[in-house]
Amino acid sequence: MLDDLDRALIHALHIDGRASFTHLANVLTVSPQTISRRYERLREHAAFRVVGLPDPHLTGHEQWLLRLTAAPETALDLARALVRREDTSWVYLTGGGTEVVAVLETPLGTAHGHTLLLHELPPSVGLTAVSAHQLLHAYIGWRTPWRMTANALTLRQQRLLRGTRPIKCADSPAPAEHRPVRLSPADHALMDALRRDGRASVGDLAATTGWSPATVSRRLDSLRECGAIFFDVELDPALLGGSTKVLLWMAVAPAHLDEVATTLARHDELAFVAHTTGPTNLVAHALCEDTAALYRYLTHGLGTVPAIRTLETAPVLRTLKAVGTIASGPASYRHG
Questions:
Q1: Is 268 in contact with 81 (CB distance < 8 Å)?
Q2: Strands 61-70 vs 282-288: parallel, antiparallel or unpaired
Q3: CA 50 to chain centre
Q4: Reported pTM
Q5: Could you give the CA distance from residue 65 to residue 129 in angstroms, rounded to a whole number?
Q6: How many whole angstroms separate alpha carbon 117 and alpha carbon 120?
Q7: Which of 85, 138, 171, 207 could be bridged to 274 by S-S, CB 3.0 to 4.6 A?
Q8: 29: alpha, beta or left? (left if phi > 0; alpha if psi -120 to 50)
Q9: Using an 8 Å Cβ cutoff, are 334 and 234 in contact?
Q10: Which helix (H) or strand (E) covers residue 284, if one does?
Q11: Per-residue pLDDT tens over the stretch 165-222
Q12: What percent of the chain has pLDDT over 70?
């Protein structure tokens, strides 16, 4: 179980994923050794890690949410085929075990990028149905954390963490005036390394990119400053009351879409809310303590939002891949 210090450390790393143990210790009024031990314990027992993520809009990409259906005996093979791809993340086995949901990232303007993926899947996966939804806007997720992972610090502690950095906070949207960033091959290598471990040392990042440590530090500061990269956390949501995981597909009239999505983004049960293309134009990821809690949320939470015209629920049976990694331990959840 997580105690108050664990929750505070998780919240702090949401705000600055690369803050030193010494600075974290000062903000949380414990020793650096205590912070180091807690961090390692979270990594070992809570599937916890810090990840560095590129902003797709600033790095020339777009994201698609794919819903793929296969026969019961081949659905898991389909999911594993998607896991092996470098351009996918968040691969779920949902529903009754015949549907796979995944996020696909493609270069901006690539015509029918998701259809190209389907042609590359092995015929043996027995694909029977496909729908693709472009992610247009995230109301919670990505830069904005799940409320249950970012509710432990006082306002003073949050200011102390943010005040030391002339860079963007993870829970702030990228400014509209920021322009797309042209990335070099070394930039891509840097981002790939940070996706694997957002707290990788400057020395390790220098070895990966071929840059000097000083160049790595300058470039990383520059990418954070312009919003092209931000830092987030992953952990086992069951430790925060999220044992039951469900994807929610909703249809909302366009005139009410922003109002509904903004309202849902304030619900503690939701870790992700986004506007998409398609007949169901709003998708969310609910994390509840158990099925009884999910029932209460569906009836007394979502049920109080009359503008939701239709609702489809798809229980998440397995998380096979998170942010570019294969889930090998407890199913983790990054709030994007």
A1: no
A2: unpaired
A3: 11
A4: 0.85
A5: 14
A6: 5
A7: 138
A8: left
A9: yes
A10: strand 282-288
A11: 544 444 444 444 557 888 899 999 999 999 999 999 999 999 999 999 999 999 999 9
A12: 88
Q: At what angle do helices 202-209 and 185-196 cross, to 10 degrees?
A: 140
The two tokens of residue 93 are 């086995």
User: Left (φ > 0), alpha (ψ -120 to 50) or beta: where does 288 sit?
Assistant: beta
- Segment 265-320, tens digit of pLDDT: 999 999 999 999 999 999 999 999 999 999 999 999 999 999 999 999 999 999 99
Kindly report the average pLDDT of the chain as a whole number.
88
Q: HSE of 154 in the Cβ direction (CA atoms, 13 Å)?
A: 6
The predicted-structure confidence for 275-288, as pLDDT tens digits, reads as follows: 999 999 999 999 99
CA pair distance 164, 75, nearest whole angstrom? 48
Strands 49-54 and 229-235: antiparallel
56 and 228 in contact (C-beta within 8 Å)?
no
Name the token pair of 249.
Answer: 């597909």
